Amino acid sequence: MLNSVRQLLRGAAFAAAAASLALVGSPAAFAQGSPPPFATTKVQGTDNVYIFRYGGHLSMFIVTRDGVIATDPVSLQRSGKVYFEEIRKITDKPIRYVIYSHSHLDHIAGGKVFKDAGARFVAHQNAKRQLEKIKYPDVVIPDESVGNRRDIRLGGTTLELHYVGRNHSDNALVMRLPKERILFAVDWIPLDAVMFRNMPDSYPGEWEEGLKRVMKLDFDTMIAGHPGKGGRLTGTKKDVEAVLGYLTDLSAETKKAAEAGKCFDNAMKEVRLPKYEGLNNYGIWLPGNVERYCGYWGRGF
Ligand SMILES: [Zn+2]
């Protein structure tokens, strides 16, 4: 998601949250009332799993004895370079892998510095296909692609890559650290937020099935692509359940509106989900979310 609005909305929250987290290698001082532009945080209960935040985007990386597994090199070459330098402050071991969570450019366009340092890039096969088609100049094309499952093993760490179907794109990889019981899933299981605008590139119906598959995976901690309320960096299975609840209710209410002949415009104005009004971006993006499900229930796409 490209969402400067969300970043603005969350700006004030970051400072408070950042102050309560163990920051590693972040700028020593940050302006009063505004969050540092980026920060690296060790995930609680681990000694080698980190979250890198740049603005409102999150990536996970793991330092092993034989090198680093990084994910999502953020949106621009400039931010990718910051990410690389943040990893370098923690270890001088080689960065062996960069794994893309999905093909959306706001999460992956800063990879060049990692490629120049010799990392191998891995993504789902549909992501590789899509990126080869677009040939966006700043995006490193994956060296390797994954179908439904693959394990990355490095220096005593196993990172499982799972494809659980189509959702916010047709190419998201869910990453699980079985020993650490951590899951990394970007954009399609948001923390405390409705979906982005009119859910471009999405697959309603299939999305909910993927959430149920994720519920069956074993993990305690979830890292998403963007922080939640108060700048929180991690969630749990409860957050997966909450997203499933939101989509299920959004779908049911929009279906009713479609059956009453209200799609698209009237449904977008009228459908309200008061149970979820505390979610980030509810006011601005709920109508877009309704629009997407109007397409699903009213037009069959
Ligand atoms: Zn995305």
CATH class: Alpha Beta
- Count the E strands: 14
Question: Quick one: CATH superfamily?
Answer: Ribonuclease Z/Hydroxyacylglutathione hydrolase-like
Order of helices and strands: HEEEEEHEHHEHEEEEEHEEHHH
Structural class: alpha/beta
Number of domains: 1
Tertiary shape:
globular
The largest sheet is: 8 strands, mixed
CATH topology heading: Metallo-beta-lactamase, Chain A
Residue runs with pLDDT of under 50 for 5 or more positions: 1-31
Explained architecture:
The protein has helices at 4-19, 77-90, 105-108, 112-116, 125-134, 206-215, 237-259, 265-270, 282-299; strands spanning 23-24, 38-42, 49-54, 57-64, 67-71, 95-99, 120-124, 144-146, 149-154, 157-162, 174-177, 182-184, 221-223, 234-235. It has nine helices and 14 strands. The chain has a single domain (4-299), classed as Metallo-beta-lactamase, Chain A, CATH 3.60.15.10. With 301 residues, the chain is of the alpha/beta class. Helices cover 35% and strands 21% of the residues. The longest helix has 23 residues, at 237-259. Bound molecules: zinc ion. Zinc ion binds next to loops.
